[in-house]
Structure formats: structure tokens, C-alpha cells
Amino acid sequence: MANPTERLPPRSSTHPGTGTGGIAAISFPVAQKPKLLDQVGHALHMRHYSPGTEESYIGWIKRFILFHNKRHPLEMGESEIA
After folding, report:
1. What is the DSSP letter of 61?
2. How far apart, in whole angstroms, are the C-alpha atoms of residue 60 and residue 2?
3. CA distance 58 to 49
4. How far apart are CA 61 and CA 39, in angstroms?
5. Which of 5, 21, 40, 70 has the largest CB neighbor count within 10 A?
6. pTM (2 decimals)?
7. Cα dist from 56 to 27, 41, 42, 44, 45, whole Å
């Protein structure tokens, strides 16, 4: 005897737009990458930096970003980043 499922008729969809098998597709929200300052804070926390040091580093990063008018580092030259 061959595969027993070969004898079964194909399943038909019981709900419109659900594809085959009658099981609706589930869509989950796409996980968003944490923002830069959240990543920095997490990295510093994982390295056991003090909360004051975390605040200081994040403050410097914020000022750097605002000083350069929120430009991406890839758009800046070496002299601006250094």
C-alpha cells in the first residue's frame, strides 16, 4: 500500500482568504530593533557600568547627534566623526 494520504481528497478552504486547509494565517507585528540610545544603555548595563556613567555616555551621544543635525554617521566625513 502506498502513502495513505494519497487517497484523501484535497482539503478545501472553509474560510475565504485563508488559503488551503482552512487555517487562517496569523500575522504578528514585526519586532522593531531597539533605538540607538536604548542599545547603548543596555550594553553599558550588561557591562556593569554605573547608572551615572550610563547617563553621562548617553548624554554625550545625544549632544553629538544634535550637534551634527541628526545626520547619519555614514553621511559624515572622517573629520566630523573624529
Report:
1. H
2. 70
3. 12
4. 12
5. 40
6. 0.55
7. 40, 10, 14, 11, 13
Please write the tens of the pLDDT for every residue from 52-77: 999 999 999 999 889 989 887 778 88
The answer to whether 47 and 55 are in contact (CB under 8 A) is no
Instruction: Cell numbers for 37, please give them.
Output: 540610545
Amino acid at 35: K
Whether residue 18 contacts residue 24, with contact meaning beta carbons closer than 8 Å, is answered with: yes
The cell for 66 is: 544634535
As a residue count, the chain comes to 82
Identify the DSSP state of 26: P
pLDDT digits (tens, 9 = 90+) for 1-45: 555 555 655 555 555 554 555 566 666 566 888 888 999 999 999
Q: Among candidates 26, 25, 22, which has minimal Cα distance to 10? A: 22
Query: Which amino acid, one-letter code, is at 27?
Result: S
